[in-house]
Amino acid sequence: MTGTIPKMATNSDGPRRCAWAGSDLLMAAYHDHEWGVPCHDDRQLFERLVLEGFQAGLSWSTILRKREAFIRAFDWFDPAVVAAYDVDDIARLMADPGIVRNRLKIESAITNAQAFLSTRAEFGSFDAYIWQFAPRGTRARPRTHADIPATTAESDAMSKALKQRGFRFVGSTICYAFMQSVGLVDDHTADCFRASG
After folding, report:
1. Annotation says 52 is catalytic
2. Could you tell me the pTM of the whole model?
3. How many angstroms separate the CA atoms of 72 and 42, rounded?
4. Is-catalytic flag, 47?
5. Which among 93, 59, 91, 87 has a CA at the least distance from the CA of 73?
6. Burial grade of 79 (CB within 10 A; 0-12, 13-18, 19 or more)
7. pLDDT for the residue numbered 12
8. What is the C-alpha separation between 2 and 18, in angstroms, rounded?
9. What's the pLDDT tens digit per position in 173-196?
10. Annotated catalytic residue, options 30, 35, 129, 176
């Protein structure tokens, strides 16, 4: 399944983008089609939360290049399937060269799937739960990449709440990156063609 992966951008001379997208076609495609776009699909929310956890200490471009392998290795990020992974699955994942082979991150993905299912059962959907952390009111659009924070009061609150629910690899910085990824915040800079006013 590759439905969640955008096609690569093909025009390097195209519209002006946020500086972090650079000239890398895969990063540009992610920037153009996913980053900052509101996401309300529970499976996609789970995928992005897990991938943000795996990104800790690495570049996002590394994760994007491995994303298709991650999707296959983690059963298309079906949280019910991942929640039931056992020691054999951990061994399988640790032997998969297509993903980031970090035992703590792999184990946290399983723990997070279990916490995800529990949260979804309580709130009806993970979407209904996680969007309560979206900032209220309007925010000034960042002028440059330097104006984008690494954490906010909302990401601090999300991190604390998720940890209390048993999630791992959900520090405030990871939570803010997740918020950017799924559109809880829109940090496209003012000179970016994706800036919405």
Report:
1. yes
2. 0.91
3. 18
4. no
5. 93
6. buried
7. 52
8. 25
9. 999 999 999 999 999 999 999 986
10. 30
Q: Is 76 a catalytic residue?
A: no
Can you give 63-81 as a three-state secondary structure string? HHHHHHHHHHHCHHHCHHH
In three-state form (DSSP H/G/I as H, E/B as E, the rest C), the secondary structure along 37-61 is CCCCCHHHHHHHHHHHHHHCCCCHH
First-to-last alpha carbon distance for the chain, in angstroms, is: 34
Contacts 24+ apart (CB under 8 A), 193-197: 193/15, 193/16, 193/17, 194/17, 194/18, 194/31, 194/32, 194/36, 195/141, 197/141
Burial of 136 (0-12, 13-18, 19+ CB in 10 A): exposed
CA distance linking residue 53 with residue 170, whole number of Å: 7
At residue 139 the predicted structure's pLDDT band, cuts being 50, 70 and 90, is confident
Among the listed residues 35, 52, 85, 129, the single catalytic one is 52
Contact (CB, 8 A) for 37 and 179:
no
Residue 145, C-beta contacts closer than 8 angstroms, at least 6 positions apart: 18, 19, 20, 189
Residue ranges per structural domain of the chain: 41-181
Q: Which CATH class is domain 41-181?
A: mainly alpha
Q: How far apart are CA 75 and CA 81, in angstroms?
A: 7
